[in-house]
From TrEMBL:
This is NAD(P)/FAD-dependent oxidoreductase. PANTHER family: DEHYDROGENASE-RELATED, PHYTOENE DEHYDROGENASE. InterPro entries: FAD/NAD-bd_sf. It holds the Pfam family NAD_binding_8. It comes from the Bacteria.
Length: 473
């Protein structure tokens, strides 16, 4: 029987393992942590019984992933829950832009820009199935839906700062800019509209759901399926070299797939990677980071805007111009006074995460790569800015700075949860320019978020890497 080793049990590593096992390959997954899941784990970080997602929290790409959708994970315990409003972006004047599966709700919140938003973003949402089939693949491929891809590409190439000029008022401008800021870093560069377009279109087409019981249920369901297919997950195994893999397996595997950072892949494989490929990988860059703050609060967040009180995800950053300035600062290595935040109110959709009237609040701030300061006060101040009285409801706090994020998951170098900077070059050609970006050498593959289509809990990086391996087995 053909053997494969997968290093790392994040959603991409598990997706790669499942795809290989489906093809009859004997698969062993090696995970450094005592628990599988990578960025999709859930823990009691503040108080007993109060559930917090350790990293990934909202799953617009998970619910639309072509690979995950076909695995029947619902039969293994995975269920999606949707909040009443998928995303809110509150403003200082009390208004908020709302992203909803119901385009009418969004349009009403955007006032004078409602119709224009519905035309531009709605067009992408209406063709979202075709768009996913194209965008969730390496950039070099024969398009199956060239018209849909072309319409997306024309807008995706724009800097986010140019894209927002089509709207006149701040709710629409800020709403789109906040979503585009998921790219981390400067928003005045080409292709920075691409992530904003994909995630807003996904919000209208499928929503931004949470996994019932926490993101860890995604990993648990995938491990269950892999085990059923004959695969194995070994936890507590820190892989540092290829020779160690051979020793653990007792023989040389036919394929090794690494759900790791590009840096770790080079360290593990060494000169087994051809010199030309190593030179390309050496140019790979990491981006801004996160400072994560988890809170247990009594009751709900007292947002000034009523729509925001119903939103599963909240972007806290003020105006479009303020977000652009803050993201530019983190890209330069400077800590902004008012950082851009993602705030999670997952319990609004999934009450199993709460204990009585004590609810979990998940939040992180965008900070410079490797930031060594404490951004906790900045996080609390930003939330208090749009929800006066919030601090009085906090009963417990847990903090992870950039170094703690990397300790939690070694792929998050310097606290970069995207596993690589989303520059124009790396959005299009991560981790290197190649017809097969997953293949590192003979029987060696990279399957992490450092490969196409990039960050997100969708498993498509692992799926495509496994397909590359299977073609050569």
């Amino acid at each position: 029987m053909t053997d494969a080793i997968v290093v790392g049990s994040g959603p991409n590593g598990l997706a790669a393992a499942i795809r290989l096992a489906q093809a009859g390959v004997r698969v062993t997954v090696l995970e450094a942590s005592d628990h599988p899941g990578g960025g999709t784990r859930t823990s009691e970080l503040t108080l007993p019984g109060v559930l917090h997602d350790d990293c990934a929290a909202f799953h617009p790409t998970g619910v639309v992933s072509p690979f995950l959708a076909g695995l029947g994970l619902d039969r293994r315990g995975l269920a999606w829950d949707w909040p009443e409003v998928d995303l809110a972006h509150p403003l200082d004047d009390g208004r908020a832009g709302l992203l909803s599966r119901d385009m009418a709700v969004t349009a009403e919140s955007l006032g004078v820009d409602g119709r224009r938003w519905a035309r531009s973003i709605g067009a992408q949402a209406r063709n979202f199935d075709k768009l996913v089939a194209e965008v969730f693949r390496p950039i070099v491929h024969v398009p199956r839906h060239p018209v849909a891809l072309g319409r997306f590409g024309v807008q995706a190439l724009l800097p986010a700062t140019v894209m927002v000029r089509r709207w006149r008022d701040e709710p629409a401008k800020a709403l789109f800019t906040g979503v585009a800021a998921h790219a981390f870093g400067r928003l005045d560069r080409p292709l920075t509209s691409s992530i904003g377009l994909m995630l807003t279109a996904a919000g209208h087409a499928a929503g931004w759901p949470v996994a019932r019981g926490g993101s860890g249920s995604i990993s648990a369901s995938m491990v269950s399926l892999l085990t059923e297919l004959g695969g194995e997950v070994r936890t507590g195994v820190q892989v540092t070299s290829y020779d160690q893999v051979v020793e653990l397996l007792g023989r040389r595997p036919d394929a090794v797939l690494l759900d790791t950072s590009s840096t770790a892949a080079q360290q593990i494989l060494g000169d087994r990677i051809p010199a030309r490929v190593r030179r390309q990988l050496s140019r790979y860059r990491y981006g801004p980071a996160v400072h994560k703050v988890d809170l247990a609060i009594e009751g709900d967040v007292p947002w000034t805007n009523p729509g925001t009180r119903r939103a599963g995800t909240v972007h806290v950053g003020g105006s479009s111009a303020e977000i652009v300035a803050g993201e530019a600062a983190t890209g330069r290595g400077e800590m902004p006074e008012r950082p851009f935040l993602l705030v999670g109110q997952q319990y609004l959709a999934d009450r199993s995460r709460s204990v009585g009237d004590i609810n979990p609040i998940w939040a992180y701030a965008h900070v410079p790569h490797g930031y060594t300061g404490d951004a906790t006060e900045a996080v609390l101040s930003q939330i208090e800015r749009f929800a006066p009285g919030f601090r009085e409801r906090i009963v417990a706090t847990a903090v992870r700075g950039t170094s703690q994020m990397q300790a939690y998951n070694a792929n998050y170098i310097g606290g970069d949860i995207n596993v690589g900077a989303n520059t124009a070059r790396q959005i299009a050609t991560r981790p290197r320019i190649a017809l097969d970006p997953y293949r590192l050498g003979d029987g060696l593959y990279l399957c992490s978020a450092a490969t196409p289509p990039g960050p997100g809990v969708h498993g498509m990086c692992g799926f495509h890497a496994a397909e590359s391996a299977l073609r050569r087995m």
